[in-house]
Amino acid sequence: MTKLLSDKQRLRIQTRHKDSVEKFGYQPQALYWSNREIQQIRFRKLSEILPLNHKLEGGNIAVWSVLDVGCGFGDLKGFLQEQGFIIDYHGIDLSETMVESAQFQRPDIQVSLGDLFDFDPADNAYDYVFLSGALNEVVETEIEGTAQYRGRYAKAVIRKMYDTCRRGVAFNLLDARHPWIQSRPDLQSFMPEEIVEYCETFAVKVRWADDYLENDFTVYLEKQ
Ligand SMILES: C[S@@+](CC[C@H](N)C(=O)[O-])C[C@H]1O[C@@H](n2cnc3c(N)ncnc32)[C@H](O)[C@@H]1O
After folding, report:
1. Domain residues of the chain, as ranges?
2. Residues with Cβ < 8 Å from 6, sequence gap 6 or more?
3. What average pLDDT does the structure give for the chain?
4. Would you say 131 and 115 are in contact if contact means Cβ atoms under 8 Å apart?
5. What CATH architecture applies to the domain 7-222?
């Protein structure tokens, strides 16, 4: 069976992040974000899937279990905590350097090495599954690169995230309508309509937003 992510692509992602961490240390630039604000604008948009009454459920504070796919330094955990959410956080990342750095920065979090298919969580294992920026690189598999299979890996990850969540998924992708994105063949981007249409084939509820950054969009999938 053809692997969804080739060894070549894995190594490319791992090498890129090893180099960037060595160069920038614990900085958003090591994650290929231009600054902290850009990272947090994305987090804020993703967090809109979490219920606002999280502090009131049954008079108690709700604790959500969260899986963060492509977690980088695990900064989403810190962001959600600062917003007042109580979460049981688990990050996964393909880059060993990132996993080690995340563990060093945040000794209290659980982080695992691998992609979502290596990790292979059970269906409904986490309340919410998040992904920010981890599908922005072009994936070359043995068959990727032909128009027919473009985005195959990203779509498989999206579907697996949905199966893994009990309540919902929020993820962002680069927006193929933006001229700057079109000028960067090394970046993977999508038309929002294509992704929404794809998600509507399996998700109970699909919403999306593109009102926060010029070249990005966020998709929310809910099971109820
Ligand atoms: C742009 S960074 C974003 C990190 C983090 N989500 C944040 O916003 O701070 C993308 C991260 O995803 C990881 N990554 C890339 N492709 C991945 C994949 N297929 N599965 C898991 N992690 C991946 C990279 O190693 C990197 O740490």
Report:
1. 7-222
2. 140, 141, 142
3. 91
4. no
5. 3-Layer(aba) Sandwich (3.40)
Per residue in 89-98, pLDDT tens?
999 999 999 9
* Entry pTM: 0.95
Of 160, 96, 86, 95, the residue nearest 129 (C-alpha): 160
Q: Are 203 and 148 in contact (CB under 8 A)?
A: no
Confirm or reject: Cβ of 71 under 6 Å from ligand 1. yes
User: Average pLDDT in the 176-196 region?
Assistant: 92
Backbone angles phi, psi at 73, to 5 degrees: -85, 0
Tokens 């695992």, located at residue: 112
**Which residue is closest in CA terms to ligand 1's atom 1?**
133
Angle between helices 192-199 and 152-164 (to 10 degrees): 40
Position 1 scores a pLDDT of 45
Please tell me if the CB atom of residue 164 comes closer than 6 angstroms to any atom of ligand 1.
no
CA atoms within 13 A on the CB side of 219: 28
